[in-house]
Write a structure and sequence with these properties.
The complex is a heterodimer of chains A (292) and B (612).
Chain A (H helix, E strand, L loop, with lengths): L16 H4 L4 H10 L3 H12 L2 E8 L11 E8 L6 H11 L19 E4 L2 E4 L12 E4 L6 E3 L2 E2 L2 H9 L22 H8 L9 H5 L1 H5 L5 H12 L6 H11 L13 H5 L6 H14 L6
Parallel strand pairs in A: 1-5
Antiparallel strand pairs in A: 1-2, 3-4, 3-5, 6-7
Helix pairs in contact in A: 2-3, 5-9, 9-10, 9-12
Chain B lengths: L1 E8 L3 H12 L4 E5 L15 E2 L8 H11 L6 H20 L14 E2 L9 E2 L5 H15 L3 E4 L1 E8 L10 E8 L5 E12 L20 H9 L3 E2 L4 E7 L10 H4 L3 E3 L6 H4 L12 H13 L9 E4 L5 H7 L1 H11 L8 E10 L2 E3 L11 E3 L4 E2 L12 H16 L18 E2 L30 H21 L6 H15 L3 E2 L1 H18 L13 H25 L8 E2 L7 H4 L1 E8 L2 E8 L17
Parallel strand pairs in B: 1-2, 1-9, 2-6, 9-16, 15-17, 19-20
Antiparallel strand pairs in B: 3-5, 4-5, 7-8, 8-9, 10-15, 10-21, 11-14, 12-13, 13-14, 18-22, 21-22
Helix pairs in contact in B: 1-4, 1-11, 2-3, 3-11, 5-15, 13-14, 13-15, 14-15
The chains are: A alpha+beta (292), B alpha/beta (612).
């Protein structure tokens, strides 16, 4: 596995086509179409005569010669009203370069697999309208994560941190209930955990966090928010809540957060992550837990 | 080679539930999924989980509504099992911490849904599936169940006896998406397919791009018949530009449908004089398209769904997610203007034929969730019945695969003496002409029956050869071109309204796609995260599944549930109270029928007219 990182600082791509030493995948594909596929070519050209959007997409593949050095590829994509960043990269892939690689699935902001770094900010490709962005639109993998290929980053560390906080309901201290009787939860308590329960594990928050970037052991906003969801749920007993707070107030837990709000800013589900982290700090203090 | 007792393919709602159940039954279980579990399409389900939880409601009412909704094509033993087990399974989810919406007294809320005689849809805002998915994945983490995520299962390792009922499934072959490594996964107990729907066979769908019918196609090629594939549900409210789903919860809470003339057409044009917007999905989808076809659509394409009158407080409490979807994907503020909606492909009622224990006719091969057909949904699935299906039948499949005795099933599978063989029926398009020869092969092709490991090794070998071939080929056709053509034909001709001529046209295009697929190649030379390769394999699966959908739609010359045929717009109970089964024999699809089971535990369901 390569340790190639997409650092936002090093995002200056060679703008001069001369420097790339080769035409773009799109030009290549259009040239190819010349061979015996004139009609198709003409159709594509005609399509491109309308309004187009220029996307510059980060490319890298550890295996393929010519892609081992990270670079940006340009694609001119016909613009349609309502077009999202995901639509644009899908068009580029399906029409011009089938090796263009990125994760995506639901296209409705719930699977969390298409978080990219778009024009210098973490965003979900599927819910980001092209019309809201300045052109050219620069699309990169999430910063501070290892790049596997093109826009795909290694999520293992993110998942590991999520798993560290024991992310599952532990109801050992709640009173025994009948098999067919639910536990009671007040609408207010449900409301309290509602926002935290919306996390789709996209990784945008972790990628935007300076602290997480410098401290690999920091639990990070997503994992802490996951723990918040359980710790604030009245259905779990006091004892388990204290156990959860002890996990969270460890050296690389909530106290690492410096309230920079970058996680909150980029969260595509509008979860008040920073506020949740602060609330957990307050809870730890109230319970006289040791803090760092 | 990896070895486990039970291998679950797919990690959405059904797969997670199956894995937990198999684990609890003492099996060493592993999940193999092309996505990380939390990325599964179950997360996009919005509406809720039907379960008879309250006094005044009971499982028999739930079963009755489901049988009626299915247009009497559901099998009563399956439907009754669903209705009986759903309450316990729903409460179980609550005990696992699922954040259901609540009443003032702290109990879980339930709301009305289409086709239900009692408000029994348990929900968590308009994001029930998201919470269900995450809650169950949390339980998988808690139990330390092994998950091979981003491993794409390409084929099943199955013996090759001439009769599929004698065949045995020993495992699967998968490749690691991240490294390209192809490996065998041996399952000593059983393989549970939980791969979801085939929505990508259509170009306007609420389904994720990952919903490519992989499980359907693999089981089909291994000899398990696909059942009732013609029954495709078109959801009445998807956003026109993207297909993004707008939950039936909007209508459940009181949302109203208007045409371009401001008429509440469900009533004013007499489509459903009692239930209006809450008639079942097939009825509403046809009503909307009829409005558009008769010139009363907005922009000649869609109708309006209005929820403004519900008030901001109620919307924020129960439908907040819908506001975000309408805003992000259509640029419409649902608080101040109506939302544009039109029917979109949503759900496949049909699937891999299995019994109440989730087992197919191939020994050791199970299926659960949308890829399976037990069958509970028959001709039309009621909103809120997909999620209980996942947990009820996911659990049963997992337990049975792990060796638990669940009793003798009443539903039979595979070709047997209870089927009606209609090989004499002259099909307008002979199946043979549909040419399945490029579909790949059953694992043990070649007439040799070997031991489990030998079969697995041979399947791995053939998968490696196939991938090498696709990668080494220098030019030809790319999958995206074929996929787009297939999707368009299905949407043009096998949609809400179907004609014999149209379905035949679709079959012709499907055959062309199959032909072109022989020349398919993978342009990306890399073994690292090669989505080009993965989608190329998925496209073949889509061709197989699309063909069964179209063939089913062609032979079922009646109007039932979601399947509307212009030539015959009445339900024909005399000839068609039976399931369509399509199996792959000797390289071509063969069609037979099995009578629907209308005898329940205490009563027989008499087919009645469905009026709403």
């Amino acid at each position: 596995m390569s340790t190639q990182q997409a650092e936002p600082e090093s995002q200056e791509a060679p703008e001069d086509p001369e420097m790339k030493g080769a035409e773009s995948p799109q030009e290549r594909r259009l040239d190819d179409k010349d061979d015996g596929m004139v009609d198709d070519h003409a159709e594509k050209e005609a399509e491109l005569e309308g309004e187009t959007v220029l996307i510059k997409v980060f490319r890298y593949d550890p295996e393929v010669e010519g892609k081992q050095e990270p670079r940006f590829d340009d694609f001119h994509v016909p613009f349609e009203k309502g077009m999202t960043v995901l639509d644009a990269v899908m068009y580029a892939r399906d029409e011009y370069d089938s090796s263009l690689t990125f994760r995506h699935s639901c296209r409705q902001a719930v699977c969390g697999s298409d978080a990219f770094f778009v024009n210098g900010r973490q965003r979900l490709g599927c819910k980001t309208q092209i019309s809201d962005l300045e052109q050219p639109v620069r699309i990169e993998p999430l910063p501070h994560q290892e790049v596997v290929k093109d826009l795909v980053v290694d999520m293992d560390h993110f998942y590991d941190q999520m798993h560290t906080v024991e992310p599952y309901f532990q109801d050992d201290d709640t009173p025994a209930t009948d098999d067919l009787e639910e536990q009671r939860q007040s609408p207010e308590n449900r409301e309290k955990i509602k926002m935290s329960s919306r996390c789709i594990w996209c990784g945008a928050c972790m990628s935007s966090c300076n602290i997480a970037a410098g401290d690999n052991e920091y639990l990070g906003p997503a994992a802490i928010n996951k723990a918040y969801k359980f710790a604030m749920d009245d259905r779990e007993g006091e004892q388990i809540k204290e156990h959860r707070l002890r996990i969270l107030e460890q050296e690389h837990g909530v106290w690492r957060c410096q309230t920079q709000f970058s996680c909150t800013e980029v969260c595509p589900k509008d979860i008040p992550l920073t506020e949740h982290i602060q609330e957990l700090k307050r809870e730890a203090v109230k319970k006289n837990l040791k803090f760092w | 080679m990896y070895e486990h007792d039970v291998i679950v393919v797919g990690a959405g709602g059904a797969g997670l539930r199956a894995a937990i159940a198999a684990h609890e039954a003492g099996a060493d279980v592993a999940m193999v999924s092309k996505l990380h579990p939390v990325r599964s399409h179950t997360g996009a389900a919005e509406g809720g989980i039907n379960a008879a939880l309250q006094e005044g409601d009971d499982w028999e009412l739930h079963a009755y509504d489901t049988m009626k909704g299915s247009d009497y094509l559901g099998d009563a033993p399956a439907v009754e099992t669903l209705a009986q087990d759903a309450p316990e399974e729903t409460i179980n989810l609550e005990h696992w911490g699922m954040p259901f919406s609540r009443e003032d007294d702290g109990r879980v809320s339930q709301r009305p849904f289409g086709g239900l005689s009692y408000p029994r849809t348990t929900y968590a805002g308009a994001e029930t599936g998201h919470h269900l998915l995450h809650t169950m994945y949390e339980q998988v983490v808690k139990r330390g169940i092994q998950v091979y995520d981003e491993w794409y299962v390409m084929d099943l390792a199955t013996t090759d006896e001439p009769d599929p009922n004698d065949r045995e499934c020993h495992g699967v072959v998968a490749y690691d998406v991240q490294s390209g490594k192809i490996e065998g996964f041996k399952a000593s107990g059983g393989v549970v397919l939980a791969t979801g729907g085939p929505g990508q066979a259509f170009d306007h769908t609420t389904n994720a791009v990952s919903c490519t019918g992989d499980g359907h196609a693999m089981a089909y090629r291994a000899g398990a018949p696909l059942e009732d594939m013609e029954f495709i549900q078109f959801h009445p409210t998807s956003l026109p530009s993207t297909g993004v789903l707008i939950s039936e919860g909007v209508r459940g809470e009181g949302g109203i449908l208007y045409n371009s003339e401001g008429e509440r057409f469900m009533f004013e044009h007499g489509y459903a004089n009692n239930s209006g917007e809450l008639a079942s999905r097939d009825v509403v989808a046809r009503a909307e398209l009829t409005e558009v076809n008769e010139g009363r659509g907005v922009d000649d394409e869609y109708v309006h769904l209005d929820m403004r009158h519900l008030g901001e407080e109620r919307i924020m409490d129960r439908l907040e997610n819908i506001l975000h979807l309408a805003e992000d994907f259509e640029g419409v503020d649902g608080l101040v203007e109506p939302m544009p909606v039109k029917p979109g492909q949503h759900y496949a009622m049909g699937g891999i034929e299995v019994d109440e224990n989730g087992e197919s006719c191939v020994n050791g091969l199970y299926a659960a969730g949308e890829c399976a057909c037990v069958s509970v949904h028959g001709g039309n699935r009621l909103g809120g019945n997909a999620l209980p299906e996942l947990i009820v039948f996911g659990k049963r499949a997992g337990r049975h695969a792990a060796g638990d005795d669940l009793g003798e099933p009443e539903i039979r599978t595979g070709y047997g003496d209870d089927v009606e063989d209609e090989t004499d029926t002259e099909l307008p398009v002979a199946p043979g002409e549909a040419g399945l020869e490029t579909s790949g092969s059953v694992a043990a092709d070649g007439g040799v029956t070997a031991d489990a490991e030998g079969i697995l090794e041979r399947t791995v070998e053939s998968a490696r050869e196939r991938v090498d071939h696709l990668m080494e080929k220098d030019d030809g056709v790319q999958h995206a071109e074929i996929r787009a053509k297939l999707q368009k034909a299905m949407t043009d001709y096998v949609n809400v309204f179907r004609t014999e001529e149209g379905v035949k046209k679709a079959l012709k295009v499907i055959r062309e796609c199959r032909q072109e697929y022989q020349d398919v190649y993978v342009d990306d030379p890399s073994r690292t995260f090669n989505t080009d390769l993965q989608q190329t394999i998925e496209t073949r699966n889509l061709i197989d599944v699309a063909e069964t959908i179209a063939l089913g739609a062609l032979v079922r010359n009646e109007f039932r549930g979601a399947h509307w045929r212009q030539e015959n717009q009445i339900r024909d109970d005399e000839n068609w109270l039976k399931h369509t089964l399509i199996s792959w024999d000797d390289g071509e699809p063969s069609i037979f029928y099995r009578p629907v089971i209308l005898e329940g535990e205490n009563k027989t369901y008499e087919p009645k007219e469905r009026s709403y």
